[in-house]
Amino acid sequence: MKIKTVNQTNGVKAFITGLSVEELSTKIEACQSGECTCACDPEIMQKIESIDLLAAEEGSAITIIGDVDAKTLAPMIQECLTGGSK
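User: That's the sequence. What structure does it adopt?
Assistant: Structure tokens below.
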């Protein structure tokens, strides 16, 4: 799995290879509901306004809108998608 995160004017975009849109959607829904096994920071999660998920070439693209940046989110995304624990 490869993850690349980049800042955008209104949030972060992450490109992920090795996971389907369906697999990512399940993980994102668990994090949004607070039922994930990740080390998601509740304060950061509250800053996220929306998360859009699209199929992209060789993987998926996640657009995260809110008062967040790639430097902060990249480690959280990496841990959540590779099976880290709380």
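The longest helix spans residues 21-33.
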